[in-house]
# Entry
Amino acid sequence: MPLLQAMEQACGDIQVTAIHAWFRHARGYFPGAQREKTLLAMSMRSCGQTPTDGGIHEPTEDLWVREGRILDPEKLFFDEQGYADKHVDCEGSIIAPGFIDVQINGGYGIDFSQASEDVSDGVSFVAKKILEHGVTSFCPTLVTSPPEVYHKVLPQVTVHDGGPHGAGVLGFHLEGPFISAEKKGAHPEKYLRTFKSGGLEHLMEVYGSLDDVAIVTLAPELPGSQSVVRELSQRGITVSLGHSAADLSQAEEAVQQGASFITHLFNAMLPFHHRDPGIVGLLTSDRIPAGRAVYYGMIADGIHTNPAALRIAHRAHPSGLVLVTDAITAMGLPPGRHTLGQQVIEIQGLHAYVAGTKTLSGSIATMDMCVRHFKQASGCSVQEALEAASLHPAQLLGISPKKGKLDYGSDADLVLLDEGLNVKATYISGEEVWRKGQ
Amino acid sequence: MKLIILNDYDQASEWAAKYIRNKILQFIPGPNKYFTLGLPTGSTPLGCYKKLIEYYKNGDLSFQYVKTFNMDEYVGLPRDHPESYHSFMWNNFFKHIDIKAENTHILDGNTADLEAECDSFEKKITAAGGIQLFVGGIGPDGHIAFNEPGSSLVSRTRVKTLAKDTIMANARFFDGDLSKVPTMALTVGVGTVMDAKEVMILITGAHKAFALYKAIEEGVNHMWTVSAFQQHPQTIFVCDEDATLELRVKTVKYFKGMMHVHNKLVESPPSEPKKN
# Structure
């Protein structure tokens, strides 16, 4: 019969395992030949600690990576008779999942809420810089702005993976304009909005598109918010409560409709009151639907929240704490005046105020600073501090265990830290994307 | 037989590890001359494995040209179950050293044809040139590997049903739940281990004392299968004080008196003179 036909027939008779033997044979005879990507495995040696569900790993434990994901070395050994192609000496560093910042307004002179032609470049610039803080994924945040800004900015940036070019974009965080005038904080009053009849349609008119939006912060006491919360949640968008004067039952109602996050707890909301705890009461509410959790953002820069309040929240609901930077344009810049949204702000030391007032305008702390400060102020363990910056935001956005964890199969987005939780190196998909001193 | 008596578990583990190290180094293994090692599982050899890992990490020992053959594996237990012997060897030994996966051999308790797997294992041992040094432990009922009381002393690798004693001894690895312990295992035979050039049995702890007594002070008996090694030309029993509790004082004194001779076997190998 024709040769090709015979070959095709024979294929059915060849076992897959026979090919493995051929690879080993070929590797032995042609050591210089290009290895297929699937055969390349990397082991990270001498890790100090790796936080896991069961606690911190033994100091001598290795972390294995292949094709951008954490690899089960036992499977590699027994199934493929494989071994590491490359070893990386981590010199006793702590290896943690890369940090995820779900609220960051800009930095290094870039303001995401500025309607410019090159928003994409600005996001990319910040994405590259925050690798130095151990952040491997983030949600560029837009504060309350007029529709023109949303229509111009939103289409310019899409959800995309991180890499040597910078941290991955998980989607926009739209903080406003459907927020409370009473609790606007540093947001410009003239652009605040309420839901007109037709809730979601109106929201779509304002934003233009929700395609690359991960989180929307709104005030649930605004009439018509219920259906909006429900519809946004059904679309897979995380709904967050913030800049709101809602009482506890309004907040609980929103959670029932799908809300799952609180934007910078304590800031821009009613203070905790023992007869009506307001949004803060969600931390210990018994009306959260079964199987769901409420997470809350904390700006642990030592300024936005008194350490005692941070501890109260942490102790009340430790598994919901999500560290955010809420970093503004001036993060990474020297003291002085800079623009945020449609306003001017002023840097004084570690504080950032609305120019001419004492209203806090966002923070200039970096994510690794927040992790260190949180650990020191709350007295929590290294593992808890790291989870608040990685596991919890991943769980909030529903992207765990792919992100935020170092399970077998998780994306190899990693940060190497020293004992003091200072960032030594950052990896995305198993590739080193930043190293201190380079 | 050489009976090596050390003060405690740690010293016994270290002596055994040094012996293995020296055997491998003296053999001078290479790409055409692999050192074949038979290996056990369980709590007894853990200290010995830790020491061997230490010697590898210090650069004193390499497993690049070492082939290993494990004694046994449970039947029907998934390979990635934390209590499988594959998991044990990976977590306690293989992952810490430079051994190549293709040089390790552990019986597969999940194949369709268990008998064929056993036969193939025997053939692999033969193909590797036989075992240079087979390291094993002893059960409280005097068994070696899973050769339970009543096993033929000339048996080969095969499927065995586990004795009640063994299942109870293993329950501690399965949350103390007897129903979770596998009831069958693949094991090398007494005859398979007897074929090795040298056999080293590790025995520590008072609960093994009676088994040690039966193994070396009584006759060769298939109810205490370790006793078969009385008929092997090169056997070493490495134990701690507690394991000697059932032996005659005369036996213990005799072998303790020989420690100064036996300790020469574990001296650090002379370092290579530096070449100019």
User: Anything to note?
Assistant: Residues 18-40, 46-60 of chain A have pLDDT under 50 and may be disordered. The longest strand of chain A covers residues 135-142. Residues 16-29 of chain A form the longest helix (14 residues). Chain A touches chain B through twelve residues (CB under 8 Å).
